[in-house]
Amino acid sequence: MKAWVVRTKEEFYAAVVFAETSGKAKSVALNTEEFEYKDFTDLEVRRAPEMDKYYKNGKNRMDWFDPQDRLALVKDCGFYCEYIEIDECKVCSAREFCDEWRGEDE
Q: If exposure means fewest CB atoms within 10 Å of the residue's CB, which of 6, 60, 79, 81 is most exposed?
């Protein structure tokens, strides 16, 4: 199973989904809460082979709210929060790898 970064054109939000093809990746994304009101043609996808290793049978996407998934998304895919809240950064599982956190002292 292949990992794909899916995003809506010209918007911040992105997700990593698992599918065999880019078209199937868009279909998987359209069945999530984040993309349910988007059009198939509004979605952009790109391969994220660095995320393939996180696929598990039955898992169709990475979950930003799962601490282990968040760590992988930040460390291996360069994800970060749209709005940086330093208090939340202090307890984030991915803080050590986040480009937005680096250089911030408590």
A: 60
Token pair of 27 as six digits: 């279909």
**Whole-prediction pTM:** 0.87
Number of H helices, E strands in the chain: 3, 3
Name the H helices within the chain.
22-30, 67-77, 86-89
Q: Could you tell me which residues are beta bridge partners of residue 46?
A: 5
Mode of pairing for the β-strands spanning 2-8 and 43-47: antiparallel
Could you tell me if 10 and 43 are in contact, meaning their C-beta atoms sit under 8 angstroms apart? no
- Could you give the CA distance from residue 16 to residue 28 in angstroms, rounded to a whole number? 10
In this predicted model, what pLDDT tens digit does every residue of 54-75 receive, in sequence order? 999 999 999 999 999 999 999 9
Residue with token string 């093809």:
21
